[in-house]
Amino acid sequence: MTRVRWIALFFHLPGLRLFAGRGLPEGARLANAVAAALTLLAMGLGAWLVPEHRFLAVVTTGLVGHFAWGYRLQQLIAAEADGAPTAPRR
After folding, report:
1. Other CB atoms closer than 10 Å to residue 70's CB: what's the count?
2. 30, 16, 26: which is closest to 70 by C-alpha?
3. What pLDDT is stored for residue 26 in this prediction?
């Protein structure tokens, strides 16, 4: 796995801009916003559904959402490097 893909996996867009000098792959802007919104929603639901372990629920759902999007983002970067389209064309 390349350095840029490791950066994408752990640090997402801010890391790509700071450490790799690049932005998101073409077509990934909407997916980035949706991933952030779904992660926040899951964290809120976790806090609401498990009030006796609120901190653990929020941290767990936040980490799962963070690494799920990081994994997908590094796949998009790999596909872009291979010349494959990263988003459906309209």
Report:
1. 20
2. 16
3. 84
Calpha distance 54→85 (Å, rounded)? 40
Q: Which residues contact 90 (CB under 8 A, 6 or more apart)?
A: none
pLDDT score for 80: 87
φ/ψ of 19, rounded to 5, equals -100, -25
pLDDT in the model for residue 85: 63
Residue 59's CB is within 10 A of a number of other CB atoms, namely 13
CA Rg, the chain, in Å? 15
In whole angstroms, what is the distance from residue 70 CA to residue 85 CA? 18
pTM exceeds cut of 0.85: no
CA distance linking residue 63 with residue 7, whole number of Å: 16
Confidence of residue 1 (pLDDT cuts 50, 70, 90): confident
